[in-house]
Amino acid sequence: MQEFTYVRQAARVVFGAGTLARLREEVERLGCSRAVVLTTARQAGLVARARELLGPLAAGEFTRAVAHTPTDVTASALDLVRELGADCVVAIGGGSTTGLSKALAVRTGLPQIIVPTTYAGSEVTPVLGETDNGVKTTQSSPEILPETVVYDVDLTLGLPVPISVTSGVNAMAHAIEALYAPQANPVTDELALRSIALMSAALPGIAADPTDREARADALQAAWLAGTCLGAVGMGLHHRLCHILGGSFGLPHAATHTVVLPHVMAYNAGAAPDAMRRIAGALGAADAPAAVYDLVSALHGPVSLGELGLREENLARVVELAVGASYPNPREITADGVAALLRDAWEGRGPASESRALPTAELRTLTDQVVASFDGTPDPRVRRLLTDLVRRLHGFVADNDLTEDEWQYAIGFLTRTGQMSSDTRQEFILLSDTLGVSSAVDLLTNSRTAESTPSAVLGPFYVEGPPPLPVGADISQGMSGTPLWTSVRITDPEGVALPDAVVDVWQSNDEGFYDVQLHDLDGPALRARFRSDAEGLVEFWSILPSAYPIPGDGPVGEMLDAAGRHAYRAAHVHFMISAPGRQRLVTQLFVAGDPHQDSDVVFGVKDALVVDFPERKGPAPDGRELDGPWHSLEYTFHLAPATPR
Ligand code: BEZ
Ligand code: FE
């Protein structure tokens, strides 16, 4: 059992794009009317924007925040705060500006609103580090924690890629060390893992397109979560080493974190196997330290302390300082161990691995060469897709230390998948379906609006040009089964009926077969095309569909067997609905209670598509008399307006 103490840090967080515009509202919310705006000389341009937004609430500004929060700079800012009679501090910038804001707050008790422009994370910690005559001291207290943090994704769009990478890995270091901190608890664990997953996926996206808002939002959110961990639990060897390298040897903060992190992870891996396994899971890799190193390498981030300006003769002094202090760390700190990890970090080698050392530098060069071979690709989208594919494939090969036999097997598997495919059997799509890729592409393409009915994959059994039938028809063509009366309405997202919609339906019979699989059958069955009436209504008879296995006689079946997965699709009816001025909806309705609902082999089930097909007795709604019970299906489909993507 894990015992822990968890203290919630009470900062108000406003997150979004363009949220800087809410600055005035946030100042007023704190009951303040004279804000002093802080930033660095390099970001002084932001002050004009803040002044404009704050209007009469802007009392003045201080644009001389610098790294390491020197006390003489704080003293000048404090004079200004007093002179202006400021009643709150608004800090817009990176770690240096946040540091100055905290230093002022701890001296004056003034409330703070922090608007971070990097991934430093210090905006959500109650910790302040200051330097006085070159000596760094750290203190922690509740007044240091800002009252409000405004995260504006737009302010990070211009953060250069190299700074985004180092700042992002710096944030990742907070999350990684939080997972093996003595104070770790279920809350910080979850925040840390989510942060690592978000950041590691966001950074390649930012490198490919620095203005990608989604990737930027993920990175900023990851930074917030990581900062929250940093504020909640103590940090270990990694933070200690970075503190020494920055404080005593002047190395740049975030870049130092970026170089050191994989090496400390490798050092601690054996002593914190559970944390390392979870980190690897969040990174989607087999070996966590190697994956962080590879990520940095792939993004052309710094990998060597030598490159950052640390002189070789200083390595021994760093070891002395690291061994001299006492702080929690999962593995005992030994001089030899720290010396070895620092040597690797100084030279820029990959992190030491318990398994056979990987030729990481050569792999990195190889990946870079292949990526560079696409530099001349005229279409930027094609370039992005190809280079990202290469990076991920190389990463997959390296992270899993793929053997030649495994590679041969994969090539053979794909070859057989192609050979199995024909006009009537698409084994590649089946592979994509069973790996969830088809559903992922479908989600991205067709299910972006919450108000419209979710989509689901088309599947291989749709046949172009189904037989047109009048509303009320029976599509079962005399097949045996339990009668099913379907009554569906086609509307817009507000519920306004859409008449004259083309509604194609197709489904399996009660043994799980589609008509195209029943070779003795004469003509189409259990498929039809209807048109909705003036009320948007389509009604028809069929039979209850059954769950069925997808074809298992090819490579996909082999994969499912190897994984111990079943091959069943939960019972469903397919719909393809088109109406003028609306996005086409391809979806499925699932019979509630089907045992395969939570393990559908193609991952097509969505909660909103699971429907009761209740049993009924007596005469049917269209007056039809039945011998026994029948079932009904009622549903309303909401079609989104057609908007070109
Ligand atoms: C189907 O529902 O018809 C289906 C979808 C994906 C793969 C196989 C079948
Ligand atoms: Fe189906």
From TrEMBL:
<dbReference type="Pfam" id="PF00775">
    <property type="entry name" value="Dioxygenase_C"/>
</dbReference>
<keyword id="KW-0560">Oxidoreductase</keyword>
<dbReference type="InterPro" id="IPR015889">
    <property type="entry name" value="Intradiol_dOase_core"/>
</dbReference>
<feature type="domain" description="Catechol dioxygenase N-terminal">
    <location>
        <begin position="379"/>
        <end position="452"/>
    </location>
</feature>
<feature type="domain" description="Alcohol dehydrogenase iron-type/glycerol dehydrogenase GldA">
    <location>
        <begin position="11"/>
        <end position="152"/>
    </location>
</feature>
<dbReference type="GO" id="GO:0018576">
    <property type="term" value="F:catechol 1,2-dioxygenase activity"/>
</dbReference>
<dbReference type="Pfam" id="PF04444">
    <property type="entry name" value="Dioxygenase_N"/>
</dbReference>
<dbReference type="Pfam" id="PF25137">
    <property type="entry name" value="ADH_Fe_C"/>
</dbReference>
<comment type="similarity">
    <text>Belongs to the intradiol ring-cleavage dioxygenase family.</text>
</comment>
<dbReference type="InterPro" id="IPR007535">
    <property type="entry name" value="Catechol_dOase_N"/>
</dbReference>
<dbReference type="InterPro" id="IPR056798">
    <property type="entry name" value="ADH_Fe_C"/>
</dbReference>
<dbReference type="InterPro" id="IPR034786">
    <property type="entry name" value="MAR"/>
</dbReference>
<feature type="domain" description="Fe-containing alcohol dehydrogenase-like C-terminal">
    <location>
        <begin position="165"/>
        <end position="346"/>
    </location>
</feature>
<dbReference type="InterPro" id="IPR001670">
    <property type="entry name" value="ADH_Fe/GldA"/>
</dbReference>
<dbReference type="GO" id="GO:0018506">
    <property type="term" value="F:maleylacetate reductase activity"/>
</dbReference>
<feature type="domain" description="Intradiol ring-cleavage dioxygenases">
    <location>
        <begin position="480"/>
        <end position="629"/>
    </location>
</feature>
<dbReference type="GO" id="GO:0008199">
    <property type="term" value="F:ferric iron binding"/>
</dbReference>
<keyword id="KW-0223">Dioxygenase</keyword>
<dbReference type="InterPro" id="IPR050770">
    <property type="entry name" value="Intradiol_RC_Dioxygenase"/>
</dbReference>
<dbReference type="Pfam" id="PF00465">
    <property type="entry name" value="Fe-ADH"/>
</dbReference>
<keyword id="KW-0479">Metal-binding</keyword>
<dbReference type="InterPro" id="IPR000627">
    <property type="entry name" value="Intradiol_dOase_C"/>
</dbReference>
<keyword id="KW-0408">Iron</keyword>
<protein>
    <submittedName>
        <fullName>Alcohol dehydrogenase, class IV</fullName>
    </submittedName>
</protein>
<dbReference type="GO" id="GO:0009712">
    <property type="term" value="P:catechol-containing compound metabolic process"/>
</dbReference>
